[in-house]
Design a protein that fits this description.
Blueprint (H helix, E strand, L loop, with lengths): L3 E3 L8 H7 L8 E3 L7 H6 L5 H12 L5 H12 L10 E4 L4 E5 L9 H5 L2 H11 L5 E7 L3 H10 L5 E8 L5 H8 L6 E7 L2 H12 L2 H9 L2 E5 L5 H20 L9 E6 L4 H11 L4 E8 L4 H8 L1 E3 L21 H8 L4 H14 L1 E3 L2 H10 E5 L2 H15 L5 H17 L5 E5 L7 H9 L1 H4 L4 H12 L5 H4 L10 E4 L3 H10 L1
Parallel strand pairs: 4-14, 5-6, 5-8, 6-7, 7-15, 9-10, 9-14, 10-13
Antiparallel strand pairs: 1-2, 3-4, 11-12
Helix pairs in contact: 1-6, 3-4, 3-11, 11-12, 17-18, 17-19, 19-21
Bound molecules: pyridoxal-5'-phosphate.
Length: 499
């Protein structure tokens, strides 16, 4: 059976154990020991299936210790209701050889739902399989969208509890309201006085804290992670790349075996890494185009081989879910590029922690650039792209998707690569109403109006109906108001569960 290995060398475990643990005991990330190999016939057969069947088909090969019945059950639980379109991951034409893969038709209007509707169900099954009877305590650091998606995914799931940390001043008003209005008896939401990297580092510290683990155990609880470091987050994301390809085949837009590019708005490198894993499993993928906002540390890394945050300011942008300097999932790619050498991978991660930078060897850089292209879009380019796509294609995109769309435009101009490309669309435009309205109607239109007034104006202007998940938010009661400093996160968790 395909086992999961740690990027830093710890003993291999089953996929269900990797999901249960989240992070490996040595601090590394779990990666497949070997990759499944899908034939072109198998990929073609996906065209005739619905999303649930595609998901079962792909996941059965990445999660071999789950039975067909278990996968059918969990997949149906995740995607059977709660999405507002039957396609689940909807592929929309938006111009010459370009398609948007809309991954935001789930309950929280961002692509995190694709994985986080499924992960809690996989986790509960993983606990069963491994004789784990303690309550699974999920700790999440969010840059905005993961938090609500995790809360929604774990909401009242028996045997689980979910605690989310968000950067107090780093998320949009709608994102914050989505989180702090969450109901359920097993959810906690805490604001951190710091940025996303502070919140993420704090969560990592708690995971490495033996005293904290003992205290949790004493309470009958065990820590796990719903961040994209958990392989149970990554696996469901692999599915939609296969699904998009199958849709293109089904529409006769590509020939079997023909390669397609994917352009992905990137923060923690989880979404684009799933595309890489799809490619390693046989999906015909051309270039993976890594799109960043002004926090462009990944652009520099892919272009130069040097990852350097030592002298870099953390910038707040209108695409907050990509405001990240330390992209956790990059460790999985590095491990792969370093020929699955755990010692080398661990050394790079130590250098990042100690010096804020590392550099890869020229041969590694070359391998990286064969698979990936990279660029970034600044705030002006993002606004211009939203306006242009609306005007020229009648397609309304959110700020994150616009980062990718703008980067694709530049990539094509620079390289002349005209290959059919799927732009991964990661959030509903209504989730970032003020910025999207400002882009299509001018900054005056959004000035002085809150998220909700902007969304109402956006609906009038575009004719696209505003989702209830946004429209009804201001009427919901605020249920979570805890706040803590970045050094006090562990204490804040214990305080929250005491109540
Ligand atoms: C999380 C997120 C991203 C970035 O995805 P990563 O997997 O972190 O690279 C992009 N757009 C939106 C809307 C997101 O929520």
């Amino acid at each position: 059976m395909m086992m999961m290995r740690s990027t830093r060398g710890a003993a291999a475990v089953t996929p269900s154990m990797a999901i249960l643990r989240g992070l490996a005991p040595d601090g590394g990330l779990y990666v497949p020991e070997s990759f499944p190999a899908f034939t072109q016939d198998e990929i073609a057969s996906l065209a005739g299936m619905d999303y649930e069947a595609r998901a079962c088909f792909v996941l059965s090969r990445f999660l071999p210790d789950f039975s067909r019945e278990e996968l059918q059950q969990t997949v149906h639980g995740a995607y059977g209701a709660g999405f507002d379109c039957p396609e689940i991951a909807k592929l929309v034409d938006c111009g010459e050889n370009t398609h948007a893969l809309e991954l935001w038709h789930g309950p929280t209007l961002a692509f995190k739902d694709m994985a986080l509707q499924l992960l809690p169900r996989l986790l509960v099954k993983s606990a069963e399989k491994n004789g784990e009877h303690r309550e699974i305590f999920i700790l999440v650091a969010t840059s905005g969208d993961t938090g609500k998606a995790a809360l929604e995914g774990f909401l009242d799931v028996p045997g689980t509890r979910c605690c989310v940390f968000y950067p107090r001043d780093g998320v949009s008003r709608a994102q914050k309201l989505q989180m702090v209005t969450t109901g359920g008896s097993n959810t906690h939401v805490i604001a951190v006085r710091g940025n996303f990297d502070d919140a993420q580092s704090g969560v990592k510290r708690i995971f490495g804290d033996a005293n904290f683990a003992r205290e949790m155990d004493r309470q009958g609880r065990v820590l796990s992670s719903a961040n994209s470091i958990n392989f149970g987050r990554l696996a469901p994301q692999i599915v939609y790349y296969f699904s998009a390809y199958a849709d293109l085949l089904g529409r006769g837009l590509i020939a079997p075996g023909e390669a397609v590019n994917f352009c992905v708005p990137t923060g923690n490198f989880g979404d684009i890494l799933a595309a890489d894993y799809a490619k390693k499993a046989g999906l015909p993928v051309g270039k993976l185009i890594c799109a960043s906002n002004s926090n462009n540390v990944l652009t520099d890394f892919i272009r130069t081989g040097v990852y350097d945050i030592s002298d870099r300011a953390f910038l707040k942008t209108t695409s907050p879910s990509m405001d990240i300097l330390i992209s956790s999932n990059l460790e999985r790619l590095l491990y792969d590029l370093e020929g699955c050498d755990a010692r080398k991978t661990a050394a790079l991660m130590t250098a990042l922690k100690d010096d804020g930078r590392y550099a890869v060897e020229p041969a590694v850089l070359e391998a990286l650039q064969q698979r990936y292209a990279a660029d970034f879009a600044d705030e002006d380019e993002v606004f211009a792209e939203i306006a242009r796509m609306w005007k020229e294609q009648g397609y309304l995109m959110d700020t994150h998707t616009a980062v990718a769309s703008a980067v694709l435009r530049k990539y094509r101009e620079e390289t002349g690569d005209a290959r059919r490309t799927v732009v991964v669309s990661t959030a509903s435009p209504y989730k970032f109403g003020p910025a999207v309205l400002a882009a299509v109607a001018g900054r005056e239109a959004a000035a002085g109006r809150d998220d909700f007034a902007c969304c109402a104006a956006l609906q009038q202007l575009s004719g696209l109906s505003e989702p209830d998940a946004i429209r009804l938010l201001p009427q919901l009661p605020v249920r979570h108001s805890a706040e803590c400093g970045k050094a006090e996160m562990a204490a804040a968790v214990l305080e929250a569960v005491r109540k």
